[in-house]
Amino acid sequence: DRNNTVARNGWGQTTVEANIQAGLSTDFGLFNPNEAFIDPYHPVARQDYRRLVQEVAKRRPDGMLFDYIRYPKGRGKQSLAREVKDLWVYGEASQTALLQRANNQKGQELIRRYLRQGNISSNDLRSIDQMFPQEVDPPLWQGRSATAQENSLPMGQRVTILRNELWRLAVSHAMQGVTDFLTDAAGMAQQNGLPAGAVFFPDGNQIVGRAFDSRLQPWDRFPQTIEWHPMSYGVCGRVDCITAQVWRTLRGTSNPRIVKPVLAGIWQQSISNRPPLEKQMQSIRQAFPQVDTISHFAYSWQEPISDRDRKQCRYRPLSLIPEPSVTIEKLVSQKRCSQIPAINLGDISFNPLWIAR
Prior knowledge:
Order of helices and strands: EHEEEHHHHEEEEHEHEHHHEE
Largest sheet: 3 strands, parallel
Distance between the termini: 27 Å
Structural class: alpha/beta
Strand content: 5-15%
Helix content: 25-40%
Number of strands: 12
Number of helices: 10
């Protein structure tokens, strides 16, 4: 039984039940109602994933890319996490891990009430002070430093300080679960001698006032020992919003060589308010000469029939494929189901096996 491994929010919903957005396929009216996100703190989920990585590693792929390393994106107002109950930290394992971040009994009890109520009040502080009179320090948890002098502040001021810090703690806890899960999985791939990378949305870690993007994808905290594949899927109809996403990613690392943007589109024509792939690639090359690798979402968009054949390990001559094929496709299809080496596009290396999804 794996039901308890699914992430939960404070509204009693799992990621299966909540009003969430699927991936890029929603551009074409597709939605996966069975899409679920796990609680990254759950030991069973982590062990299952370790076993999966080990089994994949036995097949000696060229490398491993980890996608959906985030929480789901809500629809409408739910696209932002504005309060603790919006966070996917209410699974049993995540709550336990969050309570364990307390450094004293006052801190643990306050975290517990904050999760249960979604807020704290002056009455909560008075009650906790009475419950633990032996503790002279205020409520404490990891990353929080305060002295007994805080207890002498006006009660309203104490509540405001602790509310703000509890919110930051809860958000940081949610993000840390994602980072730890990725670090563990990528580390296992690397231990097996395989290069590893993470696929992410460049705007998945945005802060909007006091709210956070509901995906809480802290890619700027991802290990810089792996490749970063930012999904640069801007839909403004021009290339500048796509290059802006690449620029945002490059600013988040001291090693630009690990940044390998993922582009969405097809050759020689616009689709879903995105310019043709060649225009996107040219713009990135001109703006960021340090970027030497591009991957495309997705091969199936450019060659749907050939992609279906590839998945079934079926080969047919290019002359029998009833759709026009670009040079890359001609190179790829000749390889049938065997490993495909990187293809050089001028100064940009493109490996068709390293696709984001």
